[in-house]
Amino acid sequence: MSDAHTRRIAETQYRTAGNLNARMQLHNRFSANPTGWAQWVFEQFDMPADGRVLELGCGSGALWTTNQDRIPDGWHITLTDCSKEMLDEARHNLDAVGRTFDYQIVDAQDIPLCDESVDAVIANHMLYHVSDRPRALAEIRRVLRPGGRLYATTNGSDHMRETSELMEHVGLPVMSSQVVTFTLENGSDELLEWFAHVEMQRYEDGLHVTEIQPVVDYILSMPNVSATENQLSEIRRIVGAEITRTGAYCIAKSSGMFIARREGALP
After folding, report:
1. Where do the structural domains in the chain lie, given as residue ranges?
2. Taking Cα atoms as reference points, which of 102, 248, 83 lies closest to residue 162?
3. What's the pTM value of the predicted model, to 2 decimals?
């Protein structure tokens, strides 16, 4: 995947929060796990009380708005994204949180921080978008202090399988192959080239969708999707029939987090 392709993703998929919000709404409203994704992600963190935290690809800032009452007072948090518009959205959403965040436009392949300057790096569902991932991982390792951790979330290869099959059935392009280049199945081997220890935690969940339109909105938010009215009608028919028959349109999820630790011990 080229740098131009990475920029195109930022400009089309993540120029504003619209596509991201459509996907988040489906998960927020219909997930079976009572612990929401953002809460679960936050619960995996193990950082010093005065830790310096860097998030790459912060999106709309949902991780922090959702967990605003749980953020230790001593954390120094820098939020970054390659999209100015998305970073502005995060800044707007976090204005009411009542604490200070630093905001920077940053390419994960060239992080403008000093060596060994942060205790944790968060990469929430974004490493599969990076064109030169070894370069980004080298940068992440460089800025982490000895013993510091990378918290990198991603999906498994069968994540949202039912929506992919539905898209294929009506002739829509399914999410392109770059998204599955860093998955729960293969991410550990890649991370072990850069980090001393890697563990993987799975988030157990599924979707029980009881309305048709959120599924349509999710599909329309995907890359390179421009559906005809006939295709949308067929999607609505299939989803509606399943909801009528069983009470819900069920979608399997496969998501989780890699926790990768740099060698050494925290001072």
Report:
1. 3-159+174-206+253-261
2. 248
3. 0.87
User: 10 Å Cβ neighbour count for 263?
Assistant: 11
Number of other CB atoms surrounding residue 163 within 10 Å: 24
> What is d(CA 138, CA 107) in angstroms, rounded to the nearest whole number?
13
Q: What's the CATH code, domain 3-159+174-206+253-261? A: 3.40.50.150
The total number of residues written for the chain in this structure: 267
The 10s digit of each residue's pLDDT in 28-77 is 899 999 999 999 999 999 999 999 999 999 999 999 999 999 999 999 99
Q: 121 - beta bridge partners? A: 54, 150
**Tokens 């992600």, residue?**
41
- CA–CA separation, 27 vs 177, rounded Å? 22
Task: Mark out the alpha helices in 67-103 (DSSP H runs).
Answer: 84-94
Rounded to whole angstroms, the Cα distance separating 73 from 55 reads 17
